[in-house]
Design a protein that fits this description.
Blueprint (H helix, E strand, L loop, with lengths): L12 H15 L3 H14 L4 H13 L3 H14 L4 H13 L3 H14 L4 H13 L3 H14 L3 H13 L3 H14 L3 H13 L4 H19 L9 H23 L3 H15 L2 H13 L3 H13 L1 H4 L6 H11 L6 H5 L3 H9 L11 E5 L2 E5 L7
Antiparallel strand pairs: 1-2
Length: 374
C-alpha cells in the first residue's frame, strides 16, 4: 500500500470517516467490515481515489480479481494523471499473470511520468524478466539518469550484455565492482557475465571471490546464538554456489558445475538452482535426472509466482520428454512434483524430548538442552 495512504483525503467528511472506519476494521482483521466501509466511502465520493484503491486491494485479497481490476480502473478514472492508481493497477495485472497487460499498464504510467526512475525501473525490470532486453534498455537508461545506485547500474550493464553490447555493458559492471567489491556485488556481477556468456574468466574470478568471502564469514557464526544476519549468510552461500556452478557450466566444466549446483540445490531448493542443475544433467546425457530437475523447477514457488518467464525450462522439458510440460495451474492443483518438493523441505523428528522443570531462585524454568537430533 506504498503511496496509497499518502493520497489526499476526500472533500466529504462522511466519506473520510467511512474510509477511516474501513482502515480501522482492517487493523482489527475484519475484512468484511472494511470492504463495506470502503464501498460506502466511494458511494459518498466517487472521486475518492484512496478509498477506491483500498477497496480494490480488498477484492484482490478475497480473490475477486475481475471486481478488483474494475475498481482499480475506476480509481484511475477518478484522477487519470495520478501515478499511484496506474501503478497499483499494473501490479495487480502482474500478480494475475497478465504480463502483456501489465506491461501496457506500466507504459501508461510513463506517459504521465516519463522521467520517473521508479516507473522506468519497474517496466525495464519486467521486460528483462521476460527476456525482452532490447525493449528494456531505454527504460533502464532513463532510470539511471536519476538513480546512480549500484543496483540500477548492474541492471543496465546486464541488459547491454544481453543485446550484444559487451564492451559497454562490461565497462559499466567493472566500474560497479571498483566502487563496491562486497561479496553480494561480486556475485551479482559474476552472474550477469555468466548469464550473458561473456568474460567468463572475469566472472569466475568474481564468483570465486564472493564464495570465499562468504564462506569465511559463515565460519564465524555462533550456532548457539543464531541471528537473522546469519540466516542471510546461509542464503547468500547458496546463491553464490549457484552462480559459481553456472559459470563452470558456461565454461564447459560440467563436473565442477554439478558439484556447486547440487550443493546450491540442496541448500536452497529454488527454481533457478533446479533449472541450472537440470541443464548440467542434460549436457551430461543424464536424461532422467535432467527431466526430474526441470519438473522440480516448475514446481517451485518461484516458477508459480507472477513475473519471470519459465518458458525456456518448459521447452527443455518438452524437448526431452516429447510431452507437454505442466502449466502453472496444473502445478498448483496437484502436480506430484509439488508433493515431492514439499517432502524435500520437511524434517521428520524421530522423537520429542520432554523438557525437565528445574528450580532457580524460587521460579520454574525449563531446560532445553539436548534437542532431538535431526
Amino acid at each position: 500500500m506504498n503511496g496509497i495512504v499518502e493520497l489526499p483525503p476526500s472533500g466529504s467528511s462522511e466519506a473520510n470517516q467511512s474510509e477511516a472506519n474501513g482502515r480501522n476494521a482492517l487493523g482489527l482483521g475484519d475484512g468484511s467490515a472494511a470492504m463495506t466501509a470502503f464501498k460506502r466511502a466511494v458511494d459518498l465520493d466517487p472521486k475518492y481515489m484512496r478509498a477506491w484503491l483500498l477497496l480494490g486491494i480488498m477484492y484482490m485479497t478475497s480473490e475477486q480479481s475481475d471486481s478488483a481490476l474494475d475498481v482499480f480502473r475506476k480509481a484511475i478514472d477518478s484522477d487519470p494523471k495520478q501515478v499511484v492508481a496506474r501503478r497499483t493497477y499494473a501490479i495487480a495485472l502482474e500478480h494475475l499473470r497478465r504480463a502483456d497487460a501489465a506491461i501496457d499498464a506500466r507504459r501508461e504510467v510513463l506517459k504521465i511520468a516519463p522521467d520517473d526512475p521508479r516507473a522506468n525501473t519497474e517496466l525495464g525490470s519486467m521486460l528483462v524478466q521476460r527476456k525482452r532486453y532490447a525493449e528494456a534498455l531505454p527504460y533502464l537508461e532513463t532510470a539511471t539518469k536519476s538513480d546512480s545506485s549500484p543496483a540500477a547500474r548492474v541492471r543496465l550493464g546486464g541488459a547491454y550484455l544481453q543485446v550484444g553490447q559487451t564492451e559497454k555493458g562490461g565497462g559499466i559492471l567493472e566500474k560497479v565492482v571498483e566502487a563496491d567489491s562486497s561479496p553480494t556485488m561480486l556475485n551479482w556481477v559474476a552472474y550477469e557475465l555468466a548469464d550473458a556468456n561473456v568474460s567468463l574468466a572475469k566472472a569466475l574470478e568474481y564468483g570465486q571471490r564472493a564464495v570465499d568471502a562468504q564462506e569465511r564469514e559463515s565460519h564465524d557464526v555462533d550456532l548457539s546464538n543464531v541471528l537473522s544476519a546469519d540466516l542471510v549468510c546461509t542464503l547468500n552461500i547458496g546463491n553464490f554456489w549457484d552462480t559459481l556452478g553456472w559459470i563452470h557450466f558456461r565454461l564447459g566444466q560440467l563436473d565442477q558445475a554439478e558439484s556447486y549446483l547440487h550443493a546450491a540445490w540442496l541448500l536452497l531448493q529454488g527454481g533457478v538452482e533446479a533449472d541450472h542443475l537440470g541443464q548440467v544433467f542434460e549436457q551430461q546425457k543424464k536424461t532422467e535426472k535432467a527431466v526430474h530437475m526441470y519438473r522440480l523447477a516448475l514446481a517451485t514457488p518461484e516458477a508459480q509466482a507472477p513475473g519471470g518467464s519459465w518458458d525456456e525450462t518448459r521447452h527443455r522439458l518438452e524437448h526431452l520428454t516429447g510431452a507437454k510440460a505442466p502449466t502453472v495451474m496444473e502445478v498448483l492443483h496437484g502436480d506430484p512434483n509439488g508433493s515431492e518438493l514439499s517432502e524435500l523441505r520437511s524434517v521428520k523428528l524421530k522423537r520429542l524430548i520432554v523438557s525437565r522443570a528445574v528450580r532457580f531462585e524460587g521460579r520454574d524454568f525449563h531446560s532445553r538442552r539436548g534437542a532431538a537430533p535431526l
